[in-house]
Amino acid sequence: RNGADIIDGKAFASALRAKVAAGVARLTAEHGITPGLAVVLVGEDPASQVYVRNKGVQTREAGMASFEHKLPAETSEADLLALIERLNADPDVHGILVQLPLPAHMDADAVINAIDPAKDVDGFHISNAGLLATGQKAMVPCTPLGCLMLLRDRLGDLAGLNAVVVGRSNIVGKPMAQLLLGDSCTVTIAHSRTKDLAGLCRGADILVAAVGRPRMIRGDWIRPGATVIDVGINRIEEDGKTRLVGDVDFEGAAAVAGAITPVPGGVGPMTIACLLANTLTACCRANGWPEPD
Ligand code: NDP
């Protein structure tokens, strides 16, 4: 029997999108300005195509302008950089997102760092990573920002809690750890070379899994009552069907945890909602208007 409360990321994200839409409507009414998000997709990666389509739909639903740039896989890095330069200079574009992964012939770091940091709504530019790490006003990566919102909503003040983040990627694990540190958690970052991962996880009041390995984190790794945030999105074949599962063994963990995010319907929907929130924030900052809270 499930002991844990299920954290409803889908509902939380829907409320956040409604709040962003209200903020957008206010800007449009008061200033005649529509926040705009440009999304750049290079190549035909099927998962990326789905993400980009969903981003476009939700951007428009929030009342913002969506500019989609789809480039062939063989586009040169120079041509992509030229497009980013145009978007940096375009006053109708307040946010720029380059969908990752990029084709292998491109230097993803160079491309991301070519985005104007003020328009870097993914928060991956080195300036934003540095601002976040030093506790300054940054654009914060969307997935970890969504996780932080769910944690604050569930737990209130996070100060003093033991947080274990499994995964150290630049897009999830590292910024997640920075955000938790910013909220005064005691943070441990685990990765593929970590010793006794199970024992480490058992000490966590907050466990964030961002690994990319289906159901790797078992129920008996969870501290009773812990809050478990499962970032993983893994497509597996099971009983002749394709299923989406997280990095956490949901059934096992839900029997022990105090609260847990499901997959799908947990962290996933928060990512695009936070992208929209970041775009609204970028638009307000660009114009010197007060930021939405
Ligand atoms: P990466 O592959 O970039 O990073 C995975 C991390 O997990 C690495 O730091 C790696 O360690 C670590 N790791 C791998 N195997 C193990 C292991 N056996 N034990 C401990 N640590 C391990 O993935 P991302 O951070 O980009 O994504 C993680 C997951 O989150 C994926 O399932 C992805 O699909 C999902 N995701 C979901 C999003 C959403 O909800 N919207 C957005 C982004 C990602 P090392 O560094 O040592 O190799």
Automatic annotation (TrEMBL):
<comment type="similarity">
    <text>Belongs to the tetrahydrofolate dehydrogenase/cyclohydrolase family.</text>
</comment>
<dbReference type="GO" id="GO:0004477">
    <property type="term" value="F:methenyltetrahydrofolate cyclohydrolase activity"/>
</dbReference>
<dbReference type="GO" id="GO:0000105">
    <property type="term" value="P:L-histidine biosynthetic process"/>
</dbReference>
<dbReference type="GO" id="GO:0004488">
    <property type="term" value="F:methylenetetrahydrofolate dehydrogenase (NADP+) activity"/>
</dbReference>
<dbReference type="InterPro" id="IPR020631">
    <property type="entry name" value="THF_DH/CycHdrlase_NAD-bd_dom"/>
</dbReference>
<dbReference type="InterPro" id="IPR036291">
    <property type="entry name" value="NAD(P)-bd_dom_sf"/>
</dbReference>
<feature type="domain" description="Tetrahydrofolate dehydrogenase/cyclohydrolase NAD(P)-binding">
    <location>
        <begin position="141"/>
        <end position="285"/>
    </location>
</feature>
<dbReference type="GO" id="GO:0006164">
    <property type="term" value="P:purine nucleotide biosynthetic process"/>
</dbReference>
<dbReference type="GO" id="GO:0035999">
    <property type="term" value="P:tetrahydrofolate interconversion"/>
</dbReference>
<keyword id="KW-0511">Multifunctional enzyme</keyword>
<dbReference type="InterPro" id="IPR020630">
    <property type="entry name" value="THF_DH/CycHdrlase_cat_dom"/>
</dbReference>
<dbReference type="GO" id="GO:0005829">
    <property type="term" value="C:cytosol"/>
</dbReference>
<dbReference type="GO" id="GO:0009086">
    <property type="term" value="P:methionine biosynthetic process"/>
</dbReference>
<keyword id="KW-0560">Oxidoreductase</keyword>
<protein>
    <recommendedName>
        <fullName>Bifunctional protein FolD</fullName>
        <ecNumber>1.5.1.5</ecNumber>
        <ecNumber>3.5.4.9</ecNumber>
    </recommendedName>
</protein>
<keyword id="KW-0554">One-carbon metabolism</keyword>
<keyword id="KW-0658">Purine biosynthesis</keyword>
<comment type="pathway">
    <text>One-carbon metabolism; tetrahydrofolate interconversion.</text>
</comment>
<keyword id="KW-0368">Histidine biosynthesis</keyword>
<dbReference type="Pfam" id="PF00763">
    <property type="entry name" value="THF_DHG_CYH"/>
</dbReference>
<dbReference type="InterPro" id="IPR046346">
    <property type="entry name" value="Aminoacid_DH-like_N_sf"/>
</dbReference>
<dbReference type="InterPro" id="IPR020867">
    <property type="entry name" value="THF_DH/CycHdrlase_CS"/>
</dbReference>
<keyword id="KW-0486">Methionine biosynthesis</keyword>
<feature type="binding site">
    <location>
        <position position="233"/>
    </location>
    <ligand>
        <name>NADP(+)</name>
    </ligand>
</feature>
<dbReference type="InterPro" id="IPR000672">
    <property type="entry name" value="THF_DH/CycHdrlase"/>
</dbReference>
<keyword id="KW-0378">Hydrolase</keyword>
<comment type="function">
    <text>Catalyzes the oxidation of 5,10-methylenetetrahydrofolate to 5,10-methenyltetrahydrofolate and then the hydrolysis of 5,10-methenyltetrahydrofolate to 10-formyltetrahydrofolate.</text>
</comment>
<comment type="subunit">
    <text>Homodimer.</text>
</comment>
<keyword id="KW-0028">Amino-acid biosynthesis</keyword>
<feature type="binding site">
    <location>
        <begin position="167"/>
        <end position="169"/>
    </location>
    <ligand>
        <name>NADP(+)</name>
    </ligand>
</feature>
<feature type="domain" description="Tetrahydrofolate dehydrogenase/cyclohydrolase catalytic">
    <location>
        <begin position="7"/>
        <end position="122"/>
    </location>
</feature>
<keyword id="KW-0521">NADP</keyword>
<dbReference type="Pfam" id="PF02882">
    <property type="entry name" value="THF_DHG_CYH_C"/>
</dbReference>
